[in-house]
Amino acid sequence: MGGFWLLVGFFMLIGSIVGGRLKSIMNKYSKVPIRSGLSGADVAKAMLEDYGVQGVKITQGRGMLTDHYNPRTRTISLSPAIFQGRSIAAAAVAAHESGHAVQHATGYQWLKLRSNLVPVVSLSSKFYLVLIIAGIALNSMGLAGIGIALFGFTTVFALVTLPVEYDASNRALKWLDNTRVLGDREMQGAKTALKWAARTYVVAAIASAAQLLYWVAMMRR
Asked: Is 97 in the active site?
């Protein structure tokens, strides 16, 4: 088990480094105003209108880096700094979340798959570790195997999230550039911000896949 906790610690460290870098970059570009003067809420609304997406609510949430799109309620929730901000960071994040709404409206397959996995992952995440530990303690490979299989769903979810997030960023950047909401220098900042945001998902996916492989290897021993 020592190798497992070493692996967990390593990816926690990497995740902390990437997360810290993301916060630093978002903080930097949240202080750089954009020439168009649009707020994050304005950007989200304009992008949805340009794509002909209707029925999506844009709301102000709480906290920092809590921005997300909920396909079930068709709601874009933007943190206060993004909703009200008129900065490069606000424009980039707001457009990214609108990109998810566009994915939903156009039937983007990877988003559909991720949405379908949500209830399964929510259930499996509650029981997989208990089953694995119980299986090891009772020397029941069958029980441990069920736990590992359940954890596999969380790994699949993390991997499926990657194309969803990268596609939303690509849609956002393309729209921001084509509409000239951001100038050339501002676009570079938006690309940097969204690139680091995407890296947090890459780290999470790699960590989940590595953990799954560890459990499988341990079971085979």
From this structure: yes
